[in-house]
Amino acid sequence: MTQPSDPFFEPYDRDEIAYGDAPTAAVAAFLDQVGGGGRALDLGAGAGRDTVALAAAGYDVTAVDLSRRGLDRIQERAAAVGLADRVVTKQGDVRELSLPAKTYDAIVATTVLDHIPAADASVLWDKMTRALTDRGMLFVEVHTTEDPGSDQSPGRESQAPVSETAGAVINYFKPNQLASWAVQSESQLRVLRYEERQEWDYTHGPEHLHGKAILLAVHAGSFPAWHGQPAAFPRSGT
Ligand SMILES: C[S@@+](CC[C@H](N)C(=O)[O-])C[C@H]1O[C@@H](n2cnc3c(N)ncnc32)[C@H](O)[C@@H]1O
């Protein structure tokens, strides 16, 4: 089944839902070590792999996406694990959200800032960072110009296979771009983890390569019990 207005309808309609069940690794590591509780926002939540993990960690989560099919799958997934009460889905454009200051204890944006034009991504970034509480966690993942779907170097020279959903990515981040946003003083963040890397994706369509930047940060002045990923010295027996 296809739905021309939603490029993600079919990937989210599959029995094996695109992007799988497992939350983004850095989000999972943070929730595992630090835990959750409070209010969370999942922007471009898709079919909800991060939403459900946030809810399971104790957050009340608002999941926002353009894809009705994705949001329906989130509700199904949350209900299946008894977390329906912790998840609210909202169909809409992340660019049109008004995000009240100091409201969310966690904001996750796994590959959505790269699905909107660069100028809009910058505006949304400012809204997101202002919307974090003093103990808030922020996770952002974006495709970079290393991605073979990018029209810029080095991705455009790559011969590696491109994602079936690459057409939806319109704003490939340049090297260090996300890092520079995170460390500007107005962002009021403390960076826990930043990485730029290539990764193979086997979770949807023919296997393909990505270029990604990932950022895990907390509000400046917040010092949760974060031990790294992997934890530098895990507790014995864990
Ligand atoms: C690559 S998927 C990632 C989904 C999910 N975050 C994950 O990692 O599993 C990108 C998602 O962003 C959503 N999206 C793209 N542009 C959007 C916009 N302007 N407002 C809301 N959602 C958007 C798409 O519908 C899609 O579900």
UniProtKB/TrEMBL annotation:
GO biological process: lipid metabolic process; methylation
UniProt xrefs under Pfam families: Methyltransf_25 (PF13649)
Entry annotated with the keyword Magnesium: no
Presence of keyword Lipid metabolism: yes
Cited SUPFAM superfamilies: S-adenosyl-L-methionine-dependent methyltransferases
Keywords on record: Lipid metabolism, Methyltransferase, S-adenosyl-L-methionine, Transferase
Segments forming domain Methyltransferase: 41-136
Entry-linked InterPro entries: CFA/CMAS (IPR050723), Methyltransf_25 (IPR041698), SAM-dependent_MTases_sf (IPR029063)
Gene3D superfamilies: Vaccinia Virus protein VP39 (3.40.50.150)
Assigned protein family: Belongs to the CFA/CMAS family.
Protein name: Demethylrebeccamycin-D-glucose O-methyltransferase
Organism (species): Rubripirellula lacrimiformis
